Amino acid sequence: xxxxxxxxxxxxxxxxxxxxxxxxxxxxxxxxxxxxxxxxxxxxxxxxxxxxxxxxxxxxxxxxxxxxxxxxxxxxxxxxxxxxxxxxxxxxxxxxxxxxxxxxxxxxxxxxxxx
Amino acid sequence: xxxxxxxxxxxxxxxxxxxxxxxxxxxxxxxxxxxxxxxxxxxxxxxxxxxxxxxxxxxxxxxxxxxxxxxxxxxxxxxxxxxxxxxxxxxxxxxxxxxxxxxxxxxxxxx
Lengths: 115, 111
What we know:
Number of strands of chain B: 11
Oligomer: heterodimer
Helix content of chain B: under 10%
Strand content of chain A: over 45%
Number of strands of chain A: 11
Order of helices and strands of chain B: EEEEEEEEEEE
Largest sheet of chain B: 6 strands, mixed
Helix content of chain A: under 10%
Number of helices of chain B: 0
Strand content of chain B: over 45%
């Protein structure tokens, strides 16, 4: 148990749907991250929040909209996605942004399929 | 920006043998190199890391070596066991910049 939970674990949605991914960390951390993991590609950083403030948007399309209401919760709102957005979406947390050593704790991910 | 290459993409070794995964990086200023293990249905977990002022680090059956001149670093797993089967990611980082990951190596331990 890493202390980072993600829901749902699996999600299938149409291109016109609106859905949200949820991440919760129970580690008392102050930084949270969204990553996209596609087959045969490196982990792609999407967003970083540090003390609830967004500090990084890695050129992510606007159909992905993050929200961080507090240091323990992170959401990723999805709307009008494309089939190429199908991937495993991973959430991670760390004591603070880009802490060293790299103590990012990852959740199990949400497997997203866009039809 | 930093670019991390990882080889091989897939590796099969007999149980009890050693496994070696290699990574190269492009930015000579990178100074921190973590390795992650991702088991099926789980997120990546940090298993070992090394900083640029150290050439080798060991933790039981796992070791990492770093050659700053050649800009490559490797993960060595000795006496492999079935539970070592997973996807392994190397990564590199410069200062407090964001971390850059390799594409991963799927390691199969054969009985």
